[in-house]
Amino acid sequence: MLMRRPPELRAALELTRAGKLNAAMQTIQRALAGPTGEASQPAISPKVVDLASEEWTATDAAASPNATPLRSNRHDQSTRNRRPLRDVIDALNRLKPGGPFPISRPAGRPRPLHIPAGARFETRSISLEASGRTYKVYVPARTLAEPRSLLIMLHGCTQDPDDFAAGTRMNELAEEHGFIVAYPAQPKSANPSSCWNWFNPRDQMRGAGEPAIIAALTADLIAEHDIDRRRVFAAGLSAGGGMAAILGATYPDLYYAIGVHSGLPYRAASDVVSALTVMRGQEMPGVSRSKGGREALHGALVPTIVFHGAADKIVHPSNGAQIINLDQGHWESYQVSDGAGRGYKRMISRDTSEQIMAEHWLIEGGGHAWFGGSVDGSYTDPLGPDASREMVRFFFGASPPRDREP
Fold this sequence. Notes:
The protein folds into two domains: 2-94, no CATH class; 120-398, Rossmann fold. Helices cover 28% and strands 21% of the residues. The chain has helices at residues 6-17, 21-33, 74-80, 85-94, 161-168, 170-177, 209-225, 239-250, 272-279, 318-323, 387-398, and strands at 47-51, 54-58, 120-128, 131-139, 150-154, 180-184, 232-237, 257-261, 304-309, 332-339, 342-350, 356-363, 370-371, 380-381. Helix 8 (239-250) links the parallel strand 7 and strand 8. Helix 1 runs antiparallel to helix 2 and helix 7 crosses helix 8. The longest helix is centred in the middle third of the chain and has 17 residues, at 209-225. It starts with 5 loop residues before the first helix and ends in an 8-residue tail after the last helix.
């Protein structure tokens, strides 16, 4: 019976690793109890929602009609209830069926990263005109694979480089494949929630704002580590995904392929109001969406892989589809009923030489979280598929066969 319920037991394992033993035990008990009612229902899916600096643990009532909320001890409960009423209402709204699952823990409190002997995870800084950013660079312990590769990873709102590295496990893949990873940091001075300003017109163009800063640090790393110009990639989550789409559109000569996870199309918004509108999946009058990250300057095509949860309540899934023009061209479709705990639909577009140029992964029941991620980081969904591994596979497959001058 245990073998027939891998998603529930996988969730219990992740909860145990996160130290949530009571929640893990209740998940296991519901998995062992079997179906209730007329139809078989999946075991309850614990959620932890970031509400300011506190964790709110609850259960998805729609997963089991007889489920009861997980309760902490009386002291913890009285402490957690000391919140403004509007915050409590907001938390309840975010726990509706199909909401982000699982937000593994609040951002801003990353666990210490394990750095293998011989590897380096260094903090750097770069200044460009009157602006600058810090960033972290991971150089694996193993010998770098030839030709040398570089991946720029852009975190989401409220995250930082350590948090994003822990949640995506990208450093582990760097050790496995022998490439360098860099994590630019967005300070609160640039955005109160540490979001990349993908909706700001100044930060949507070449040679200015945040794209120019990220491109400059990328160029520095290319020179320092003798990176092959056809093996430079960028990926991001949410606002970081939106910025990755901008980099692919404005610097196609620098980034050979991009990955957008739960993000938004290039030039989808022009201010905060239009940003909130498009995040809900609505068009903003007077704001023209581009043809996605695939159409960049000079007609160059930048290979793009997109991941998005079908139940994302933060960034509507329609945004992921528009990044790669899913409604245009010929697409191969693959439906998978069980992808490491979550079903998904994978769409593929090829060029005339049959090389894959774009992929779109729509994850059934997935919310606003990095799929296949670790609970050591925030905004991760450990139930897969493994977005990090699939992105690396896509990036390395996108180069160097595609013939394009760097």
